[in-house]
Every structure is written in C-alpha cells, then in structure tokens.
Give the backbone structure.
Amino acid sequence: MHTRTGQDIRQILVKAKNGIPPDRAELVYLLDAVDQSELEMIFQAARDLREMHFGNSIFLYGFVYFSTYCRNNCSFCYFRRSNKLSPRYRKSDQETIEAAAQLSGSGVHLIDLTMGEDPYYHRDDEGASRLAALISEIKCKTGLPVMISPGVADPGMLEKLSAAGADWYACYQETHNHDIFSKLRLGQSYELRMASKRNARNAGMLIEEGLMTGIGETAQDIAMSIEMMRELQAHQIRVMSFVPQEGTTMADRPAAERIRELLTIALLRLSFPDRLIPASLDVDGLAGLEERMHAGANVITSLIPPQSGLAGVAQSDMDINEGLRSVQEVKPVLNRIGLKAASAEDYTRWVENERSILR
Ligand code: SF4
C-alpha cells in the first residue's frame, strides 16, 4: 500500500505552480489530506497561484435574489416548489433596480441577478423579454457587469439575455455524478443543464459552474467534476457546502464538513490558477470569509443590501439585516490578511478581455 508522504504532496504542488495541474489521481490524493501540515501546504500553494495571477486584489459581487418562485423541486433547496416554509417573493423591477443601485454605490464590481426557474420569466417569449429589459436597465443604471442566474434556459432566451447585456451566465450542476444529480435535481435533465451552459457560451456569455460538497460525493466525484469544468471551459467555478434546509427532503442530513469545501477551493485554484473562484458568504456569513480566502478564493460573492427584504440561498437570512454581508464589512477582513478589494475598472477589464476571446 502506498504511504502518504509530505514529499508526494510537495511534488504535486511544485508541478501545479509550474503550470501542470494535478491529474485525477493526484486530486483524489490531495482530497484525502487530513494532517494540518499537509493542508497548510496545499492552501499555501493555492494562495501563491492566486497571487501569481491576481496579485492581492479580490473581486466583490453583489447578489440580488429577485424572485424565489421556482417550477422545480430540488431536494436540497429551501426554495423548492413544494416548500411552504420558504419566503416566496418576486421583487418589482423597481425594487430590483434599487437594490442593484445600492450595491453598486457600496462598491461591488458585479451585480449577480439570481432567480428560481420562475414561470413568470420562463413561460414564454414575453417573459424572456421582461428579464432582458431588466438586465438592460440594471446595466445602464449601475455601469457594472451583470451575471444572470435564471436556471436552465432555452437557446432563444439565452441569446436575448446576452443581447441585453448579460456578461455572465451562472448555472450550477452541483455534481457530475449522474446518480447523485438525479437525487438532487428531481425530475430534471442532466444533459439539458449542461447544454444550457454551452449554449450560453455560444451566445457570448462567460460561464460559471458550481459544485456542492456533503451530498454523498466521493473524492473521485470531485476530481471528475474538476475535469468536467475543464471541458466546459468555465470562467468561474464555485464550491459550496451542503447546508440542510427546513422543509426539504434533505432536512435531516448533516451539514457538510467545511474542510471538504476549503480543500476543493484550493484544488480548483491549483487546477485553474487564472480563473475566478468565489468565497461565498452564503454558507457561514462573514465569519467564514477568512478561511475561504486562505484556501485561495479570489472573489467574494453574496454581498446583499441590508433591510432590502432579499434572501440568500443556502442561508436565507444569515448576516443580511445586520449589514455584515457588505463591502464595508468585508474590506477590513481582506486588509487584515494582506488582501484588498480590486477596482471596478480592473474587474470590468478582466470580463471584457475574456468575452473578447469568446467572440
Ligand atoms: S436549486 Fe434552483 S432550480 Fe432547484 S428548486 Fe432551488 S431555486 Fe429551483
């Protein structure tokens, strides 16, 4: 039996720093790291790679979950169709625009417009046009890049959203293990979800793919997902821990151990050193920010305006009304660990450059 040594890990990390990302077996090996000194080596290498590509600048994303209506019934999601406990709302265009403007004024670099698969927007061409008009107005009002997370969308809708100015399309598979997918996203097509991302890319948008840990996945599954993300050529890749939600079929399942998420952040950085990798405030709020940055993340997501009546996803209200998910609160954390918020111009330049490669 092969015995683990610090030397093995060091070799994998040196290779990664020289531009050769870990292969599937090496990813699995790294995911098995438990010893504190092994973990520290991995996190340090991830931070070194972040610094190599992004210096000490971090991008900040504002989050506007403007409709929690959804036609789907994902087993892990608080906002699944059948959950009577979740707050159900659809913000008016005016409220959504105001929230985006508030975030923009606070210093975020992007507006992430997220919704469930709300039939109001998905039902027909008119719905897609309503969403496109909202994107245009927000672009015009804030001058910032916009990410749209509408769920699975048909090619015509994606073309419309891109033409309206959406820079990013976010759609998370959560797993690339078909069996786990079918248990998470009940009654939904794995292929259709993947195709939606490829179509969005063909329509000229940057792609964000995402994973969830603590859902019964193996280290092999995570390594396979990393390969799928490479194939998809995703521009941003996120991992989040499963958090059990009241009123769902997975409510009694234990929350994911955070170390798996942190290690996966680091492995994503080793695998895709120049891509964007978020630290989400949505799992552990502001208290969980430092450890995610320590693992090699270079974007902070889920900044939400306080008192706006807007929800988060995995933690629907954590830290929001207290104002802790704000630019003002994350900046001192960044400064304390030798990082700083990037400028809006730096971020827009990154987005424009990547989009020009797609054209
Ligand atoms: S994860 Fe998204 S698609 Fe699934 S139920 Fe929740 S909001 Fe709907």
Q: What stands out?
A: The chain has a mean pLDDT of 96.
